Amino acid sequence: MLNGRESLIRLVGKRRHFLRNRQSLLSDPFATHNDSIEDTEAEKLVDSKEATEFGSESGSSEKLVTCPVCGHKVSGDHNDINSHLDACLSRGTKRKLTQQTLLQSNFWSQPKISSSELEPSGKNVSGRGSDKSLVHNAVPGLPDFGAAEENVISMCQSSRKLESDMQTHIDDSSENPVNEYWINYSTDTTQQLSPKNEVPKGDMDVTMDEICGVTLETYIVGRRFSDEKKLLLGASISLLRDPNNDKDPNAIKVVSADSGCSKSLGFIPRELAQCLSPLIEKCCLNFEGHVCSIPKHPFDCVPIQIACRKSVFHGEKESEVLEDFNCLWKVAKLVVESAKNYPLSMTKYQQNFCVLIREVLRSNPHLFSEDEKIFMESFTSLSNDSQRIFIRLYTRKGPWFRMSNISYAEVLDPQEAVKGLSAAGYVCLFEDADESDYNEIKEMLNLLTVCELRDISCKLKKNCNSGTRKKDLIEALLSLHKNGLCPKLPSVVLEKTGVCVQISSQAESLIWRAERLFFLNGEQDLSTFLLVDLGIVKYPTYNCIISEQIFSGRDDLLAYEEAIEVAQLMDQALDGNNAEVLLRLIKIADSRISSSSMKAINSSTSESAPKFLLYFSALWVYSKVVSLGVSFLEREHRYNDAINLLKRLLSCFTFDGRRGYWTLRLSINLEHIGYLNESLAVAEDGLQDPWVRAGSRMALQKRILRLGKPPRRWKTPSFSASIKRKITEVLWRRWGAMWS
Question: Which residues does the annotated region (Disordered) include (predicted)?
C-alpha cells in the first residue's frame, strides 16, 4: 500500500455513492494539460498571490479586483482571475457575508437568552454545556453511555465548585474576551436543560423526606430477559440493584412485588439506572411502583410509575450523602422528562438517528440552507415504518435494493413505508426501464444472482456460455447493450429484479454531512450509537467549552466536502489502477493549494492555529491527496513531478508535522535523479527546521553522514557519534504476542 493511503481511507470513511462535484472534478480544465506536472506556472501564481497580499503594505500599484463569487480580493492579472474563478465556480455556491452561531454539545432544549443574561457581541459565542448535565460524553449525541456510578457522583461533587468558578469567570468577563459570552449560571442551570425551558417541580433543593411519594414515569426494558412473561395491569413492582450485570454495572432490575419469589420483569432504562443506582446504594432509597399499561407485544417496553421510599440509616452516613443527593435527584428527573420526547413505539436506532439530526441542525444552522433544513426536519414527520426503512437502507452497502428483499420485523408495511419515503424525496424508485441509463442497468445487474443472469442471457438468445463468474456475465450483457445488440435488456432486468429502491442523492449528501459534523471524523457512523447502547464502548463524562466554530461558514464546509470528494475519487482510482484519473486528481489538489491566497494558507497552517481545527480545512485534505500523489509518482519513477509537488507542500505548509517526511522524500528523490549536492543541502536544511522531528530527523542525519563524505563535506557532523551507536533491541512478551 502506498504511503499515506491508509490515512486517506480513514479520512474518507464510508464511500458515498453520489458525489456532488464528481462531474466537474473529472472534467476539470487542469486535466486537459499534458500529463507532466510542471511547477513553473504554479510558482508564478503563488508569487502573484504573495504580491497581492503584501502589495497594499509595500505601496505596490498592482490592481486588485473583488471576486464576484466569494468576495475575496484577487490579483487583476487575467490568468489569476481565471484560475480563481474556476476554483470558486467549481464549488457551486456563493459565500454568505455574515455568520453568527453558537456551537454547543448539549442535547437538551435551550432557553431563549435575554439580553441581561448574555453580553452583546457580534462575534461567534463560546458555548458551555451545563455543569450538571450528566448525560454528555465524548461522542456528541450519545447520552446513554452507561458510565460507572462513581463518574456520576464525582461530577456532582465537582458541579458545585464549577458553578462558583463560572460565576467568578462572569465577574471577570471584562478581562477575558471569551468569558463575556458565557451564559449567567447564577440562576438554576437545570432551567436550560428542561425540555420545556422551565424548571420542573421539585428541581429546587429538596430533602429525602420531601421526595418520598414523588412518582417518576418510566418503563421496563429488556423484557426478553425476564422471568415472568405475562404481566397484569396495576401489578406491584419494586426496583432491585444488579451490580453483577456484565453489560452495565449500574443495572437496576424490576421485580414483581406481588409474588414472594420476586421474579424479574426486566430492567429500567440504562440512562435512568445510571442516576438511580447511587441513590439506591449510597442514599439507601427504595423505589416501588406499579404497571400502568400492558403492551400488545410481550417484548415491548412496559410503562410503569415508581415512587421513592426512604430507608432509615445512621445520621453520620446521611450527612455524607446529602451533599450529592440533590444533584443526583435533579438529573434523574431530567432524564425522565427527556424520555418523554420519544414515544415508546420509537426504536432505539430511530431515537439515535433523530438525536443526530436534531443536534446538528441546532448546533450548526448556518451550515445549511433553508431548503436543506426543511428537508431534514421533515424526517420526523414521516411514519415510524418509513423512518426505520430509511435508516436501515442508509446503513447498508447499496446503492440499490430489491423491494422483494426488504423485510424487517419492526416494519409492518414496507411497501407503504417506501412510498412515503419516495413522496418525501428520501428515496428513488427504479420502476420504469425506459428511463434507465447505463450505470443504473449495471447496478441492477449486480443485484441478480448468477442463475438469474444466465436466465436473462438465454431469454435474450445470447451466448449462455460467456462464463461462470458473475463479473463475466455482467460484462457480456453490458457489452451487448452498449453496442445496441440487446435493446430489451433494461425491461428484462426490471422484470427479474422487480421494483428497486435507492437512497436519493439529496438525502445521502445531507445525512453524510450531518454525520461528519456530529462525529467530526470519517471512522465513526451510526454504529457508534449501538456500541454505546450495548455498553461495549464507554465514554467519560465531561463539560464541553467551544470557543471556535469548526466551520465558520457554509463555504468552508462545502470546500471541505469537495476536498473529501477528491480524496474519495483518489482512493477509488487507486483501487482501479486508473493512472489517468490519478494524475488528474493530483493536478486538481495541487492547483487548489497553489490558487489559495497566502493569507488563507497562513491562517490555516499557522503555528498559533488550533491543531484540531486544521484537520477540517480543505487545504489540509488537499495536502494529504498531494502527499499520496507523491508516493504514486515515486512508484512510477516520475521523480521530477514528485519533487515539484514536495517543494509546493514545503513552501505552503510551514507549520506542519509532516514537513519531516516531505523533506526526507525530497532529498531521496533528488538523489534518484543524480542531484547529490542538492539532496545533501535539502537534508542539512531540514535539520534546521523545528518541525522536523523524531524518525525523520534521524533519517536525515543518516543521509547527511552518507552523502556528506569528502570532498562534499570535510567536517564531521556533531551528531555522527549518536547516530552510529548500537541500539539495544528489547523483546516484550504479553498475551502470546511479541513486539520488538
Answer: 113-136
d(C-alpha 352, C-alpha 364), whole Å: 18
Q: For residue 473, what pLDDT is reported?
A: 87
Beta-bridged to residue 239, according to DSSP, are: 254
**Distances, alpha carbon 475 to alpha carbons 23, 324, 442, in Å:** 24, 69, 9
Distance separating alpha carbons of residues 99 and 122, to the nearest angstrom: 9
In the numeric block, the cell 456510578 is attached to 149
**CATH 3.30.70.2330 boundaries in the chain:** 105-340+520-551
CA distance readout (Å), 611 to 615, 620, 645: 7, 11, 23
Q: For 162-295, where are the E strands, in sequence order?
A: 215-220, 236-241, 252-256, 264-267, 285-291
Please tell me the predicted confidence (pLDDT) of residue 598.
Answer: 64
Answer for the pair 666, 650: CB distance below 8 angstroms, yes or no: yes
Q: Is the pLDDT of residue 201 over 50?
A: no
Contacts of 660 (CB under 8 A, 6+ apart): 686, 689, 691, 692, 693, 694, 695, 696, 697, 700
Q: Of the CATH numbers 3.30.70.2330, 3.30.70.260, 3.10.290.10, 3.40.50.720, which one belongs to the domain with range 105-340+520-551?
A: 3.30.70.2330
Indicate the DSSP class of residue 536: S
Backbone dihedral angles phi then psi of residue 563, each to the nearest 5 degrees? -65, -40
How large a percentage of the chain has pLDDT more than 70? Answer: 69
pLDDT tens digits for range 254-286 = 988 876 667 888 898 888 888 888 888 877 788
State the Cα–Cα distance between residues 134 and 142, nearest whole angstrom.
11
**Selection from 162, 208, 215 nearest residue 189 by Cα:** 162
In angstroms, rounded to a whole number, what is the distance separating the alpha carbons of residues 665 and 241? 61
